[in-house]
Amino acid sequence: MTHKLTLWPSGEVLDVSGEENLFAQLKKSGKKIKSSCGGCASCGDCVIIVKSGEDHLSPPGFEELRLLGNVFHITKERLSCQLKITGDVTIDISAHEKKPISVGPVEKKPAVVVRKKSEIEEKAAQVAAEPPKKQDEWFKHWEKPEDNIGKTKQLGGNKRPKPFKSDSEN
Ligand code: FES
User: Fold this and answer.
1) Within a domain: residue 75?
2) From ligand 1's centre to the CA of 147, what distance in Å?
3) Phi (first) and psi of residue 64, to 5 degrees
4) Taking 70 as the threshold, does the pLDDT of residue 45 lie above it?
5) How far is the CA of 55 from the centre of ligand 1 (A)?
6) Which end of the chain is more exposed for a tag (fewer CB within 10 A), N or C?
7) From ligand 1's centre to the CA of 37, what distance in Å?
8) How far apart are CA 120 and CA 116, in angstroms?
9) CA-CA distance, 3 to 162, in Å (whole number)?
10) What is the pLDDT of residues 131-159, one digit of tens each?
């Protein structure tokens, strides 16, 4: 028995049989569906999105659930190599279509930048004109200069230990 398979968004309608999986039938009708495993349910490349007719799909098998998980109600994705239909269905295979190759000149940056002598001299003059950086500023960045005037740094939370009182003193 044949059913109507509508391709979204083109609206193309194919007559497909309910006996064979969609991957094989789409391939026969000249549609490009990505696949690395050739329809063995091991690559997960042949995913299609079901747009309508969810009630007319064969239930997912163990291999399909292992690859896609039990989330069809969210993603609407099925493996076309495992899917047979029992009624009219609309699917989206736009992810499998070839993307148009961009035509135009591709700018390539050279691996080595060649500078003119005048540019190098200009850069050297710029570097020489900059004021020298202070070398010892980095490790005291948390201290403000006014904090250190007339003070010696005290460690240990500025608390002295209480004197020990022995029994003989009491
Ligand atoms: S073709 Fe590889 S999982 Fe369907």
Assistant:
1) yes
2) 70
3) -70, -45
4) yes
5) 22
6) C
7) 5
8) 7
9) 93
10) 776 666 666 666 666 655 666 666 666 67
- CB of residue 35 inside a 6 A radius of ligand 1: yes
Q: Domain range for residue 83?
A: 2-94
Q: What total of structural domains would you count in the chain?
A: 1
Burial degree of 63 (CB within 10 A; 0-12, 13-18, 19+): middle
Residue 99 maps to a domain: no
What pLDDT, on the 0 to 100 scale, is given for residue 6? Answer: 92
Is 48 within the bounds of a domain?
A: yes
88 lines ligand 1 (CB under 6 A): no
Indicate whether residue 68 lines ligand 1 (CB < 6 A).
Answer: no
Q: Is residue 155 part of a domain?
A: no
AA letter at 87: G
- Rounded distance between C-alpha atoms, residue 22 and residue 85, angstroms: 8
